[in-house]
Write a structure and sequence with these properties.
Length: 82
């Protein structure tokens, strides 16, 4: 018998997010979250949705893989559309 869709839900949060506890440097905070995801053995912890808008304000979103975290920011691997 197939599982009900609602039974597929997994709990991903381990604690509430408090801004007071966050690092002032967003890259350092991201490293904390990524390390938590790796320790929790989450599938594909470096996969994420990157969303941007063009000059007209139209949104675009795609799934990308984080390949590196540099002092200047994130380095993603993604294929450009043909």
């Amino acid at each position: 018998m197939l599982k009900k869709i609602q039974d597929l839900r997994q709990e991903y949060s381990s604690a509430p997010f408090n801004l007071e506890d966050a690092d002032a440097n967003p890259l350092v905070q991201f490293e904390v979250w990524l390390e938590d995801a790796i320790k929790a053995e989450m599938p594909e912890p470096n996969a994420m949705t990157l969303a941007t808008i063009n000059q007209e304000g139209s949104p675009s979103a795609r799934v990308v893989l984080l390949k590196a975290l540099e002092p200047e920011g994130f380095v993603f691997l993604f294929k450009l559309p043909k």
